[in-house]
Amino acid sequence: MTDVSSMGPQPDDHREVLTNRQGHAVYDNQNQRTVGARGPATLENYQFLEKISHFDRERIPERVVHARGATAYGYFEAYGKWGDEPVAPYTRARLFQRPGERTPVAVRFSTVIGGRDSAETARDPRGFAVKFYTEDGNWDLVGNNLAVFFIRDAIKFPDVIHALKPDPVTFRQEPNRIFDFMSQTPESMHMLVNLFSPRGIPADYRHMQGFGVNTYKWVNERGDTQLVKYHWMPRQGVRSMTASDAAALQANDLGHATKDLHEAIERGDFPEWELLVQMMSDDDHPELDFDPLDDTKVWPEERFPARPVGRMVLDRNVADNFAENEQISFGTGVLVDGLDFSDDKMLVGRTFSYSDTQRYRVGPNYLQLPVNQAKNAAVRTNQRDGQMVYSVDRAGENPHVNYEPSITGGLREAQYPTHDEQGPTISGRVTRRRIERTNDYVQAGQRYLMMHDWERDDLVHNLITMLSQCDRPIRERMVWHLLLAENDLGLRVGEGLGIAPDQVAGLKPLASQDLTDEDRARLANLG
Ligand code: HEM
After folding, report:
1. From ligand 1's centre to the CA of 189, what distance in Å?
2. Which of 5, 120, 273, 451 could form a disulfide with 455 if both were Cys (CB 3.0 to 4.6 A apart)?
C-alpha cells in the first residue's frame, strides 16, 4: 500500500482545492488511474474522462466574420439632448432622455477577415459593436470604424466575404480574388478609397471612430419617425498606421490592439467616445444625389449635422475571454422602444443573419449567457428547452402555463407604449430592382480630395501594390473606376500600373451599374 501522507498539498497550503465539475475533489491531477504504474488505463476513470472530453469540446465555431476581437465593459451616459435641442421630440427611447443617466455597456472591437488568432495589424475594417443593457432590454449598435460599406444589398454579403477571405484552394488572401470581385462591384469604390488609405489600419482600438453605417430610425411618442445615422468619436483622437508601420509592429506582436485596450483599462486610463447622431426626415429625399438607405454613402455633415447625444466610457476588462468575448452575441435586430430599423437592404439582411449564426455558433439558448442577458430588464418568455438551458424564464403566476393566451395565470401581452403604427406609409410591387441614385463615384472622389497629401500618396501606393498582383483585365477595370471617381486618383494608380486612360476608355459600363450624367461625361473624356 502507498503511503499518501507525503502526497498532495502540505498542511500550510491554504489555496482552494481543485474539483471536477461534479464537485468531487481531485487528489491527483498528474497521473491517470492505471493498473499498476506501467499498466493499462481504466475506463471508469471519471476525472480523466471529464477533463479530456471537455477539452475536446473547448472550441466552438469561430465567428464567420469578425473572429478576432476584444471586449470591455463600461457605461453610456446620456446628455438628454440632441445637440442643443431636447431629444424627446425625436425619440422616446428611454436611455437617451435623462441627462446624466448611465446605461451599462459591453463593447467588442474586432477585425473582420482573419481568424480568431490572426494579426490585429491587418488592413481590414474594424468592428465596433456596443451592447447597451437598458432598462427596456438590450440595444445593440453593431458598427464598424469606417463610415461606409462595400455593398448595399445583403444578398451580396457572402460573395464579398468569400472574395476577401482566403482562397479556398491555397488558403491565402489573394489580391486577384479581392479585386476581381470589387472591380465588378462599382458601389465598393467609396469603401476601397477609405480602406486603402491609412484609415484602413487603425493604430489600435482606442484611437478609432465607430459608425453604425446603416440607416436606422428614431420614433417619438406620436409614432413620427426620423432617419438616423450613429457615429462614435474617440476622445483619445484618431490614429492610423501606414502599411510599413503595421508590418514593423506585426513582426513582434499579433495582438497589439487587444493588449493596448486591456492595459489602458488596467492602469485606469479609461477610453471614451462621444455618440453623435445625424438625422433627416423619414422619406426618400429626391433632392439628394444619393439614397438615404444606401450604406455606401455618407450624409454630408453641413446639411445633416452630427449632434452629440451622450458619451461612453470603458472601465472594466473581461474576466474571461471565452465567456465574455467569444460568446458575446450582437445583432442589428436588438433594438429598444423608440429605436427602429429602416428599409436599408443591408440592414434587413443583417438583422436575420446575426441571430441565425449565433443560434448555430453559440447555441439556441445563447441569450441565457450572462454576457448576453438583458440583465437590466425583466425577461419572461414562454420559450422552453433546447440545448444548454441554463435557467427557466420566469413564468406568470402559474408555472404550468408556458403558453399564451390563457386565463389560468400565464403571462399577458404588453400594452403598446403609444400605438401600433409608426412611420410613413409604404407601397410598391414586389421586385428585385436596384435602388435608383446609385451614384457610385462621387463620394469616393470627394473622399480622395478631402485627404492630406500624404494620405493620398499612401492610398495610391497601397492600391498599386495590390493591383500589380492582379490580372490585367482586373487592373484595367479598377483604373477605369478610379478615373471615374477622381481623375487624379485614376491617373496616378494607372501610371503606377502602366495603364493610360486611353487604354481603358473603350471599356463598357458594367451591366450591374447605372451611370449618372456626370459619370457619362467623364467617360466620354477618358481617352
Ligand atoms: C459580425 C453578418 C454587414 C459589423 C457578423 C457576423 C455575421 C455578420 C454572421 C458574425 C456574428 C457572430 O458570429 O456573432 C453580416 C451580414 C452583413 C454584415 C450578413 C451584410 C448584409 C456588416 C456591416 C457592419 C457589420 C455593414 C458594420 C456596420 C459587424 C460587426 C460584427 C459582425 C462589428 C462583430 C460583432 C461581434 O463583435 O461579435 N456580421 N454583417 N457587419 N458584423 Fe456583420
Report:
1. 20
2. 451
pLDDT of the residue at 420: 83
Residue 317 bears catalytic tag: no
190 catalytic per annotation: no
CA of 17 to the centre of ligand 1 (A): 42
Q: What ligand 1 atom has the least distance to the C-alpha of 295? A: 26
pLDDT digit string (tens) for 180-205? 999 999 999 999 999 999 999 999 99
Complex ipTM: 0.96
110 lines ligand 1 (CB under 6 A): yes
Element (H or E) spanning 134, and its range?
strand 126-134
* Position 161, amino acid: I
**How distant, in Å, are the alpha carbons of 107, 127, 257, 376, 379 from that of 330?**
10, 11, 21, 17, 17
- Please report which helix (H) or strand (E) contains residue 481, including its range: helix 472-485
In the predicted model, what is the mean pLDDT of residues 433-462?
97
Catalytic residue among 66, 190, 231, 481: 66
Cα distances from 66 to residues 227, 245, 331, 354, 430, in angstroms, run 27, 23, 13, 12, 33
Using a 10 angstrom Cβ sphere, with 0-12 exposed, 13-18 middle and 19 or more buried, the burial of residue 106 is buried
- CB-ligand 1 contact for 183 (6 Å cutoff): no
354 lines ligand 1 (CB under 6 A): yes
CA 211 to ligand 1: nearest atom: 28
**Cell numbers placing 3:** 503511503
Q: Does residue 394 register a pLDDT over 90?
A: no
22-59 pLDDT, tens per residue? 999 999 999 999 999 999 998 889 999 999 999 999 99
pTM reported for the whole predicted model = 0.95
